[in-house]
Design goal:
Elements lengths: L16 H20 L14 E5 L8 H7 L6 E9 L4 H17 L4 E7 L4 E7 L2
Parallel strand pairs: 2-3
Antiparallel strand pairs: 1-4, 2-4
Length: 130
């Protein structure tokens, strides 16, 4: 090290290395705090939960209520039923969604229903997001 530069933070400088490290940490804390102080509101929605079990109606699959009863849901589980439908036949889609929601409620797990126009896919996702 050139003689013109002081030994700041060096062990021979009287043990001042901790002060430089503390100053660095304080600067990092200031930067992180300042990045959240711009006045922007945090989003109200939580991130999408990770699915723990997925149900797809198929030949030989149990009814939705039986499938729900087989899952270790507990009080922290949420159920989302996704129902694809033909946009020209919304009334039939609403009836089918109401039927699936009633089936889930009878199994003890109220469901969130998502209708997807133009898709024929129907299924349910059990997640633990609470």
């Amino acid at each position: 090290m050139p003689a013109a530069l002081p030994n700041i933070g060096h062990a021979k400088a009287g043990g001042a290395a901790w002060a430089i490290m503390l100053a660095d940490l304080a600067l990092i804390l200031f930067i992180v705090t300042a990045s959240y102080a711009d006045g922007a509101a945090l989003p109200d929605t939580a991130p999408d939960p990770v699915p723990q079990a997925i149900y797809r109606p198929s030949p030989g699959a149990p009814p939705l209520a039986d499938w729900i009863a087989q899952q270790p849901a507990g009080g922290a589980a949420s159920l989302q039923i996704t129902l694809g439908y033909d946009p020209a036949d919304t009334e039939n889609a609403m009836d089918r969604a109401a039927s699936l929601a009633a089936e889930a409620a009878s199994a003890g797990l109220p469901a969130r229903i998502v209708l997807v126009p133009g898709s024929g896919e129907t299924g349910a996702t059990l997640s633990f997001d609470r």
